[in-house]
């Protein structure tokens, strides 16, 4: 497996885990929904944390990315519900 493929697989795994964690907080279900919400949440969470200068201080990069993506996914779901 080349590095680009591995990166995409890891990104998808982070998205699914983050989407699942967000669904535990705000509700929702389904693997595809977890993936989409988690991936969008990864971008949103990363942007918000950088813009606000927030550092989670988690030593494990994978766990830090999952938490950041989950928080971003929660924000996305709550904003979507507020708009709808």
Report the strand count. Answer: 0
What shape does the CA trace take? globular
Compute the gyration radius: what is it? 13 Å
Query: Helix fraction?
Result: over 70%
Separation, N- and C-terminal Cα atoms? 42 Å
SSE pattern: HHH
How large is the count of helical segments? 3
Main sheet characteristics:
none
Helix-strand makeup class: mainly alpha
Which band does the percent of strand residues land in?
A: under 5%
Kindly give the count of domains: 1
Transmembrane segments: 7-25, 31-49, 61-83
Keywords: Cell membrane, Membrane, Transmembrane, Transmembrane helix
Membrane topology: Multi-pass membrane protein
InterPro entries: Transgly_assoc (IPR007341)
Features:
single chain; mainly alpha
Describe the overall structure.
It is found in: Cell membrane. Belongs to the UPF0410 family. It holds the Pfam family Transgly_assoc. InterPro entries: Transgly_assoc. One of its GO terms (cellular component) is plasma membrane. This protein has one domain. It is globular and about 40 Å long. It contains three helices and no strands. α2 crosses α3. The termini are far apart. It is an all-alpha fold and 84 residues long.
Q: How do the strands and helices of this protein lay out in sequence?
A:
Layout lengths: L2 H24 L4 H22 L8 H23 L1
Protein name: Transglycosylase associated protein
Keywords: Cell membrane, Membrane, Transmembrane, Transmembrane helix
Membrane topology: Multi-pass membrane protein
């Amino acid at each position: 497996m080349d590095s680009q493929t591995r990166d995409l697989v890891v990104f998808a795994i982070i998205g699914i885990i983050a989407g699942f964690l967000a669904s535990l907080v705000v509700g929702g279900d389904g693997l595809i929904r977890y993936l989409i919400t988690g991936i969008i949440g990864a971008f949103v969470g990363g942007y918000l944390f950088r813009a606000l200068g927030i550092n989670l201080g988690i030593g494990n990069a994978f766990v830090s990315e999952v938490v950041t993506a989950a928080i971003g996914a929660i924000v996305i779901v709550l904003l979507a519900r507020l708009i709808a």
